Amino acid sequence: MDQNSTLRIGKIVGVHGMKGYLKVYPFAESTDPFAPGKQLTMEWPDGESKTVTVVDSQAYKNFFRIAFDGITDRTSAETLIGAGLYIDRAKLPEPEAGHWYWCDLIGLEVYQADGSRLGRVENLFETGSNDVLVVKQGNREVLVPVIESVVCSVDLEKKRIMVDLPEGL
Q1: What is the pLDDT of residues 19-45, one digit of tens each?
Q2: Residue partners of 13: CB distance under 8 A and separation at least 6
Q3: C-beta separation of 137 from 152 below 8 A
Q4: How far apart are CA 139 and CA 162, in angstroms?
Q5: What single DSSP character describes residue 113?
Q6: Can you tell me the distance from the alpha carbon of 132 to that of 145, in angstroms, rounded to the nearest whole number?
Q7: Overall fold of domain 6-91
């Protein structure tokens, strides 16, 4: 799958109920990509993929419960666990200046202002006031708030984020 033309917006992590609903962990901030009628690409770790259409979608805790066209029972749904969900990037608006799609930040290297490597962005999550980068290096995990005073720059071409962490973080 061409990573420049598609965005990974979620991962199927389980099933819900007996009618083929799937539990999807979203990587997108917006609920729009999961709206009924949207077409997504489902890709398995082995590279096999297919296009699916959202029939129903409901936010549930930190997940979405989603029904796809043609998946109507639990047994069929269980075979999809572990698949990634992608959307055509051209169908999404470009982010505003100073904003990025989460999926573009995952995997970027994070460096402190002094040039030392902090680690790699493994995930993000949202708090009430700002997003937070989950940066890992080995067994060490650092939570970096995505706020102007901490995130100095994001260079998607160089796959690098520069941060200036406050004392004690």
Answers
A1: 999 999 988 767 888 999 999 999 987
A2: 23, 24, 25, 63, 81
A3: no
A4: 21
A5: T
A6: 4
A7: Elongation Factor Tu (Ef-tu); domain 3 (2.40.30)
